[in-house]
Specification:
The chain is an alpha+beta fold and 193 residues long. Helices cover 67% and strands 13% of the residues.
Length: 193
């Protein structure tokens, strides 16, 4: 019977010691979270304004993508640092490693979508490829109706709207393709008819 009171006494003593260590860490973590929240809320609008100056008009999608990625990285960094501040550095390291492997798996699974998005960024930044331009890409000739991050819409000469993945267009396309009527008129003039 004397073992139970001593066990309770030791348990209570260990609990109080653990609480004495945990409270300052928890308070430090809360102070860090408050400062990090304010910092991120200040940094993100600055990034947004800077990106909005670079990407205007139909290129806003690229800016939105960049701001979203910056936001994800900032908040993930805040979460990992918070874990480190409250004394869970090993969990933070494990979480960082696990997220890296998960990101690798997701990027492999979404490789075509990522390829479309990267090609879309290149097409949106290309000064020679704009809405209203006549182009030929992958056997489709027409006028560019819309350029999005993953797809480009082309109004074909036959009246159809063709939606193509950006990864199919970006590697090879031709600018300023003459319309069929102009081409046939040029052929008629060349043959003397």
């Amino acid at each position: 019977m004397t073992q139970i009171p001593s066990l309770l006494t030791r348990s209570l003593s260990n609990f109080v010691e653990g609480l004495a260590v945990a409270i300052p860490r928890l308070l430090s973590g809360l102070v860090f979270l408050a400062l990090a929240y304010v910092t991120v809320r200040i940094v993100l609008p600055v990034v947004r304004r800077s990106i909005d100056r670079l990407y205007v008009g139909d290129r806003e999608l690229v800016g939105d993508l960049i701001v979203t990625l910056v936001s994800i990285f900032l908040w993930f960094g805040v979460a990992l640092t918070f874990l480190k501040v409250v004394g869970m550095g090993d969990i933070a390291a494990s979480l960082g490693t696990a997220v890296g492997f998960i990101a690798l798996g997701v990027s492999y699974a979404l490789s075509e979508m990522i390829e479309d998005t990267v090609a879309g960024v290149y097409l949106l930044r290309d000064p020679d490829f704009n809405v209203g331009d006549r182009v030929e890409a992958k056997g489709v000739t027409g006028t560019v109706a819309a350029i999005e991050l993953r797809k480009t819409r082309i109004d074909a000469d036959n009246g159809d709207r063709i939606v193509m993945a950006n990864r199919e267009i970006e590697p090879r396309w031709t600018h300023d393709v003459p319309e069929e009527a102009d081409a046939s008129a040029a052929d008629d003039a060349a043959t003397g008819e």
